[in-house]
Every structure is written in C-alpha cells, then in structure tokens.
Amino acid sequence: MEYILYTRAVEQLGMILFATAFVLIGLSTVGALWGTVLGFALSCVVAVYLFKFHMGQLIPPANPDFKFSRKDELKLATMLVKFAIPVIITGIAEMLIYNICTLVMGRFLLAEDIGFFAAADPISRLPLMISISVATTILPASSEAFSSGNKKSLNKYVSSSYRYSLLFVVPMCIGIALFAGPILRVFYFTDPSYVTGATALGILAIGMTFYSIFSISTSIVQGIGNPRIPMYILVFGAIFTGALSWIMVPAFGISGGALATTIGCFAMMVPILYFVFKLTKAKAPTKSVIKIIIASIIMGVAAIIVPKTVYGLIVGIICCPFIYVGGLIILRFFEEEDIVALRRLTGKLGPIGKLLNKVLNFIVKIQF
Predict the structure, then answer these.
(1) Which residues of 351-366 are buried (b: 16+ CB within 10 A; e: fewer)?
(2) Using an 8 Å Cβ cutoff, are 240 and 180 in contact?
(3) For residues 209 and 145, what is the distance between their CA atoms, to the nearest angstrom?
(4) 6 close to 50: Cβ distance less than 8 angstroms
(5) Residue 349's pLDDT band (boundaries 50, 70, 90)?
(6) Can you tell me whether residue 285 is helix, strand or coil?
C-alpha cells in the first residue's frame, strides 16, 4: 500500500512543481493547466516503474506442487472482477470530484480564470498527502481486524486513523485558507495576478478537510469488504458537484467552483461516516476531534492578526505550530500512547527528531 502513497505524493507535488515552473518561464495560466496534466502523467510513470522494479520482490516464487484448476481460476477471476469494478468506478468518480468544476468552468469562464483556479487547486490538496498515507495504512489493517473478528483492534484502528490524520490535516487546511494570498505570491512570484485565486484556494483548503475524512472512511469501508458503498457515494458526489458547479460558477466564478467542490466533499463525508460507524460498531473519537478543532481555531484566531504578506507567512509558519500544540496541551489532547507513537516517528527524522523529542519531553512534563 505504501507504493500507492508514493504515486499520489508524486501526483500532488508534480502538479505544483510543473505549474509553478511553467508560469515562471512565461506560459501564464495555460502553464498552470499543463502542470495539472503533467502531474497526473508523472504519477503514471512512477506507478509503472514501481510495479516493474519493486512489486516483483513482494511476490513469492510459484510453488511447483501447487495445483490450480481452470474452474478455480474462473472463480478467482470472477471474485477479483466483482471487487475491482466498484474500485475502478470509485477511482474515476474521485477524479471527477477533483476536476468536474474545471470542466464546467470551460463552459462559462475564460481560460485565464481557469488557469488561476488550476494554479490554486494542487496547493489545496497538500494536506491530502497525510490522509492518503493514513488511508493506505488503514485499509489492510481494518480488513485483517474485521475478518478475524477482533473488534477491539478494529475500534482502535478506526479511532486512531481519524485522530492522527485530523491532528495534522485540520491545522494545515486552516493555515492554507488564512494565508492563501501569500502562499500564491510565493509560488508564482513572477506574476502577482495569481493572487486572484486566493479566495478559491482558501475555500478549497477547507473542502480538503472534508475530503480527507472521506478518503480515510472510504478505505475503512473498502477494507471490511464493502467497495460498492464508496462507489455509490462518489458517483452521487460527482453528479452533485457538477450540478452545483453549473449553478455557482456563472454566479461566483472560480470561487463558485471551489465552493461547489467543498459542499460536494461535505455531502460525501456525512453518509460515509454513517456507514463507517454503523458497519464497524466503532466508537467515534468525538472528544479528540473537538479538541483538535478548538486548538485549530485558537491558532486561526492568532493567525488572523498576522499581516497577510510573505513576511507574515514566514511568521505564521514559525509561530502557528507552537500556538496549536500549546492549545492541544491546554486541552489535554495527548495520551501516553500518542507520545510513544510520536517518539517512534521522531527517531526516523534525524536532527529534527531531536528537536521534536524536546517538545515531547515538554508535553510529558506539563500534561502527565
């Protein structure tokens, strides 16, 4: 599953890097659109490379004594196709969620406006790299726990996946939304007109919070053997987002497309959450999520007073994490198992890990 994470990370970073590079060399908004196309293309190349040169090491050699009849092959093929078709449709619908408002914009807006949206869209998806990493981990874990009937482990996996992903995703999305203008100035410093997409970026960043929750929930539901449920919800979401875009883009321009996408993500998040907790019987980490939201709001209120300039962005990047962590400490968010898990992570981060360990020591001293 980690290879899926690599391809998605390359896709998101490729979109941003290509779009920025094309704008810098003078291709303007058309370059931003081509950045999106090449981001997808690069992820395809990486996926083929990983499959050809790395996946083979994970497949054990064939046992010469193993017998598999034609009937068994047909049964296996039928089972795989039944599971794969909903997953494929889900993937197509997921791409439509990302891009259907851009298609609608082509009917009502100028190419320049669409380019501003295309330049902002990949930046708003950066927090998805965290939720995708959690989603790729939770799918096999939830599948194993559900199939073995281990309700305790399943409850832990479900609860932890939401806690740890939202712990990072929510403040990131709020930070991007508040500093949308300066972020676009930094990425597209040769052309100040790209700040036009700041409102759309801020709205999309909030929508990515909803989509992050949806992404994790989808992996849980698929992991426990229900691939059709996310498929139906995503198809509904794509149609709903398309209809909203058709109404809102002519009225509000690229901001209308961003708002339609955000509302569509929220509309998908609600039913998938219902099915997750209905099917797994897991307990929702309500208290933890509320504490994360409150700490993020505290950080956001502090960030509002920071000037929305490039220098203000630097100040925000330095100060906001400390304000956020301070809010979590005051709210007593961290548990002992969180500290153990975070220490395990910091051991892989070299010099930065030493600094983070000091922060963890401070948290332990204050909270425990």
Answers:
(1) eebeebeeebeebeee
(2) no
(3) 27
(4) yes
(5) low
(6) coil
Q: For the chain, where are the E strands, in sequence order?
A: none
Cα angle 265, 172, 159; round to 5 = 65
* Per-residue model confidence as pLDDT tens digits over 51-101: 777 766 667 776 677 777 777 778 877 877 777 777 777 777 777 777 788
Query: Nearest CA to 10 among 157, 132, 107?
Result: 132
The position carrying tokens 């482990």 is 153
The amino acid at residue 162 is Y
Longest Cα–Cα distance in the chain: 71
Q: 211-231, pLDDT tens digit by residue?
A: 989 988 888 888 887 878 888
Tokens 């998605």 found at: 8
Find the distance separating the first CA and the last CA of the chain, reported in whole Å. Answer: 36
What secondary structure letter does DSSP report for 63? P
Whether 221 and 279 have beta carbons less than 8 Å apart is answered as yes
Contact between residue 142 and residue 226 where contact means Cβ atoms under 8 Å apart = no
CA–CA distance, 287 with 347 (Å, rounded to integer): 29
3-state helix, strand, coil in the chain (%, to 5): 85, 0, 15
How confident is the model over 119-131, as a mean pLDDT?
A: 81
Beta strands in 16-70 (DSSP E): none
Q: Are 35 and 11 spatial neighbours (Cβ–Cβ below 8 Å)? A: no
To 10 degrees, the CA torsion angle through 36, 202, 124, 18? 40
Please report the DSSP string for 200-264 in residue order: HHHHHHHHHHHHHHHHHHHHHHHHTT-THHHHHHHHHHHHHHHHHHHHHHHHHTHHHHHHHHHHH
More confident residue, 281 or 3: 281
Supply φ then ψ for residue 288, to 5 degrees: -65, -45
Question: What pTM value is reported for the model?
Answer: 0.80
CB 101 within 8 A of CB 36: no
**Residue 183, token pair as written in the block:** 């972020």
